């Protein structure tokens, strides 16, 4: 039995609730994962309070689900076994911006809208995933290994030292933050690693099952001084992937994304539904968007060099590709796209994936770029079997690290109030995932129904994960029911 009075002693009466309206807010998210009702919501305001909550939960064998915002899209924060929702949104301070070491230290509740405003004012930025919600936690997205749109970002691991509260309540710091006196120690957080073995991989991608990260250092970089946005209409994915294989390893471009007409129309349409339907009817099947930027030093020379190489590559090797600063028939699109790529999706506008039909479900995975065409073919074969029009599928391909790999994302849009449509999307989602896995799709973030599909193929991995879980979370209180736990 959970005692409200005992929780109130830890976080204060104003920071614990069992009101039905509060509980309902955390019982579901934007995904198809079935709802689950928590018994209490607590809002800690310090790492010490997080620690005391976890100690109390271990003593009383009460599940704890950590969340950092209420903008969740994959079901990872839906309470599968009741218990307590630990909402970290009140831990929302930007603790430090170090322009010399190019890092920002922030708490778990800091949102994209908040951090973007602070860094823009200083001429700095943090690599962003594609159109994050303004109210979503920055720390959560990096813990979840969201892929940034900037393919030439030099740091494969943006998260540096951070603080985690293990499920037993122990407060633990990683990397240079483990040094006594941090953040005022001599190291000042300059390196994310060590001493010796690192622990940070235990909590990344763990969907809150391995501990609660309360703050982190993130690497940041200078903002750009000048930008040129280029577009290329695409009807042959294999051809454009060959182009990207030649272009991106030369470190040309900053943001690089590939969007099909449905996703692009959903993002840029202004007047609904007329603009959306017109765009879907007139946009090319796919659009390559490439941003070439001049940075702090010699921005004009940098842009000139990259544009020269781009044009020579098209002229000499990829003549079928038309690359220009304007997409034919869509004047002024460059400025709008640049703003979208450099800022989170506005909190006062329906999230882009939910603009069209009210709800959506995305299926995303990592793949080799040359296999993108095959994965699209699979999706276009599976969807009609469930009565879902191929033209309604949103598709987005994000090159990773100079096109070494890519993330492919398919989005199914639907009306949440239509039970039949919702059921159809759930079945399509599962069947498509199975077909994609069989073809070699790597689901590195297996949420909900994906988890058993992924882990049934990796018995040794599951055994090792469960041994590690037992060490750090002996009573399995941390977000049980996710991954293979």
Explain what you see:
The protein has 485 residues and is an alpha+beta fold. The chain folds into four domains: 4-87, Uridine Diphospho-n-acetylenolpyruvylglucosamine Reductase, domain 2 (2-Layer Sandwich), CATH 3.30.43; 94-222, Uridine Diphospho-n-acetylenolpyruvylglucosamine Reductase, domain 3, CATH 3.30.465; 224-343, FAD-linked oxidases, C-terminal domain (Vanillyl-alcohol Oxidase, Chain A, domain 3, 3-Layer(aba) Sandwich), CATH 3.40.462.10; 350-446, FAD-linked oxidases, C-terminal domain (Vanillyl-alcohol Oxidase, Chain A, domain 3), CATH 3.40.462. Helix content is 32%, strand content 19%. The chain has 14 helices and 17 strands. The strands form four sheets. It has a six-stranded antiparallel sheet with strand order 12-14-13-16-17-15, sandwiched between helices. Strands 5-6-10-8-9 form a five-stranded antiparallel sheet. A four-stranded mixed sheet has the order 1-2-4-3. A hairpin with a 4-residue loop joins strand 5 (94-98) and strand 6 (103-107). Helix 7 packs antiparallel against helix 8 (274-282) and helix 11 packs antiparallel against helix 12. The longest helix is centred in the last third of the chain and has 20 residues, at 419-438. It is globular. The two termini are 23 Å apart. The mean pLDDT is 93.
